[in-house]
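User: For documentation purposes, I need each entry recorded in a consistent format: the amino acid sequence on its own, followed directly by the corresponding structure tokens. There are two entries in this batch. Please keep commentary to a minimum and don't merge the entries.

Assistant: Recorded as requested. Entry 1:
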Amino acid sequence: MADLFVYGTLRHVPLLAAVLDRPADKIDMVIGTLPGHRVNGVVGEDFPILSVGEGTAEGLLLRNLSQTDVDRLDFYEGGYDYALKPVDVVVGGAVTSAQVYFSESAVWQPEGDWSLKDWSERHGSFTVHKAMEEMSYFGSRSRREVDRMLPTIKARASAKVLAESGPIRHNPSGFDVTDIEIHRLERPYANFFAIEEVDVSFRRYDGSMSQPVNRAVFMGTDAALVLPYDPVRDKVLLVEQFRLGPTARGDRKVWQLEPIAGRVDGGETPEATAHREAQEEAGLTLQRLEEVGSSYASPGGCTEYFHLYVGITNLPDDVIGVSGLEDEAEDIRSYLYSYDALMELVDRRELDNAPLILMALWLSRHRERLRAGA
């Protein structure tokens, strides 16, 4: 059995429970302090580091940890370049020996005192969701493999935070997440995307619960989509790029004409994503965003969720060209269309991108207002 002192994000009990894979009331922990140390923030990061010096670091002493507990903690902390070292911790006035995760990395620069309260309010829910997926690979994947997946793990965690914090939209049945029961969940594939297979029961309209049914769901992320519109020139900008979906379906037209779109990265808001993607995909600076709506792409078997915007901007003739991020293998061409030309494409059923059609129809209802305010 081992005793371990935690001073940073693992003091957030829901995170600790996720890492150790057991309820908080099953974890032997007491409040303790570590004299001669300070908990500092890190420049450009949201996690802390432990610094030797004047002061006292507050934390939790985790007692009687099993080897599996330590292995799980090592697996989680291994993603942050920490190693264990022995320390003397004070608990209730008595000194006891323990170990603490400590980093001597020169890359991380201390920055002031770190606040657990502030961190929990800003990052707690996101970090718990991220940790739950990270720890689901404990025993089956190496820490290095999980580190390579972190960008998409973070994006899926952000999607869960957005789903939890978003409004409950029109819901005539009144049923919600409390009216289902997950009996089994497995993740047979995870990389850039993931697949989850579940056995689930759901409330029937007669009030009873269904028998367990087996289903699979494609685990995408939230995405921000923006249709750039110049209300003065009455023009929109569309982008075109190669897409694997139509290719796998067997479509002959595998280059898609689309609005600008991109994944909502970990810790990012959909609005920030829309502005970032407009710059990356078309070199555009948006003046403001008009919210079109938010919706699932295909709720029967996909978590992907779209945040749709019309982005007000200037669109001179020379704005078009080829752009995209080279490190993401993007090769994106932009085109200008007049409003009338866009709506003619809609009317002739020449567009096969659902978000673009929705955004064009929204624009048709709000165009006069946007032009009047230009």
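Entry 2:
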Amino acid sequence: MTVVPTKGICSIVIYISIVKGMKHPEAAYALAEQLPSDQGMLGVPQALRYGVTTDVTLTEDLRKDLLFNSPERKALKKKVDWQRWMADRSARIERVTK
């Protein structure tokens, strides 16, 4: 169920943690690699009707059903360079840890 606030918007954060010593670590790593893919990014709009801020292609039916689909919202969407983003991962983790 998705609740639309009367003022402002909600933020959605998706994260995954790989637990040391888990029974099937290869499955966790496969999921972590799948999340930023087009198929993985489609999970949010399909489940919650929130648009994504990447260049993933949405079907027309899904696009019409999004909660926040204004021209201003569309203008915020930028192509994500996932290789660059992942290359900076260690620095981000270090900043958050401090």
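Summary note for entry 2:
Residues 25-97 form one domain.
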